[in-house]
Amino acid sequence: MRAYWILPNREQADDILASDGETVVPLRQILDPKRRPRGFSHGVPAELLERCGRAESEHVLFAQRFPDWNGRDQLFCLSCPAGMDAAGRVVHLGLMFILEPHERPIFVLPVAALPKEDQPYARALIHRMTAPHDGDSWAQSVRDLSEHPFKGPATNVELHRSAVRFHSLYEVGPSGLILKRTVWKSLATTVIFLMLFAVIGAYLSVRSCATSSRAAVQTGVIQWRFN
Amino acid sequence: MMPMALTTFRVFLLLTSLPSAGKHLARWVKGAIEWWEGKKIAVIGPTASGKDSFLARLQNLEIPRVHSNSAMGEKVKSFDVKLALSNRQVVDITCKGVINIGGETDYRDDPSGWLAVCQDADVVFYVMTVDDLARKQFLKGRRVRDDLDWLLTAMPYLKPGALIHILINKIDKEIETHTDYRALAQELAKELAALDRTVRAVLHPYERSYTGATLISMKNKKIYTRAINIVFRAVYCAFHESETCKKAG
Predict the structure, then answer these.
(1) Residue B218 belongs to a domain
(2) What ranges do the domains of chain A cover?
(3) Domain holding B63: CATH number?
(4) Which of A93, A147, B159, B206 has the fewest C-beta atoms lying within 10 Å of its C-beta?
(5) All residues at 6 or more sequence positions from B120 whose CB lies less than 8 Å from its CB, including other chains
(6) For residue A159, what is the nearest residue in chain B, using CA coordinates?
(7) Which of these, B78, B34, B99, B92, lies nearest to B236 by C-alpha position?
(8) A162 CB near a chain B CB, below 8 Å?
(9) Cβ–Cβ gap B75/A161 under 8 Å
(10) Nearest residue in B to A29, CA atom
(11) So what's the pLDDT on residue A178?
């Protein structure tokens, strides 16, 4: 397992910076932009922050998992909001893991090399992931994502505006993060449609029999004429 | 039911047998398809240059007070841009398939980043700031110049006839910090001319796609309204010109 911090872009710089806990380097030196998986995010997507509202958005955790991203390893990335930049824009702190195919991320990484203003966010993130408490559904969703055997790219929470489609187990509901019910929904919809088709089919067959001028059963002798 | 269908079919046959009806029908169908397709715009540029704000302004929305450093490409719901320009031309386009993307160089060099955003675009808006202009970021080895170099390499993969317009944002800040506006105007004109020359030189042989650079402020609605009129007039004229060229060809 290789783990890196993705640092908040507070200075509005051209490069996204990353750290292995000891040194700080541009993220592109660790993850070449040309080899980045499609839909990779270095932070929390804006749509989640908008949907959660200002109060809840501080607690949002966003995670992505790309199994087999370079034909061998899997990429796991976790991010959270980490304050604001000079222009008042929300910036993000991330934890990126490059894992063996069956490895699971371990959320421990030194914070000493990070800029001072980023360290409290880093400590809080690690604390949430290593010492979870029952009410933290965001942290639970990240753990579920790390353990669920998704075959394709997946996120901990459903996205509606992503340019790439992801599997997900949770969605943002009116009262926070909830387990997705799409499987049950689609099953119920299928059953309803099947029942509807059956009723319509039965009604049409009965109606066609009732309106037909032909007798329901014809008896007699059929004569074949040959010229 | 049957006679009515027959009558409709007969009317259709009669119409299509008329000399110019086929042409009109084809034009109508083509127009309808084009209308449905809408126009695609791409907004790219360095981080914090005002891409989100520009997308908000185009949708006639206020700039969000709290917004986020774009962390991934996110789809923007299709929206209409209806503007009456000062020369009585009307811009009425449906922007579809717009993707909001970050400005860090990682997104530029990611094949599913800027290139994917620009690939089907009819107009590419490159947003930079007045500060970038003042710090001559368009000189070799600097950020804007690197982006222009990238744009040149992307040109063969863009839609044929795609246009590029540069928006130089945050002019309101510059105005607020100056008192001698004549000197400021002269200075900006000089820098704009230098940028213009650089863009044309860098984009060669695709320099015809470049429709100019306009000073703008996404924050100040008055400046935005004046600037966007200039922007769309330039883009409209370039589109019209290419249409004329196609017809002449």
Answers:
(1) yes
(2) 2-180, 182-212
(3) 3.40.50.300
(4) A147
(5) B40, B97, B159
(6) B74
(7) B92
(8) yes
(9) yes
(10) B106
(11) 85
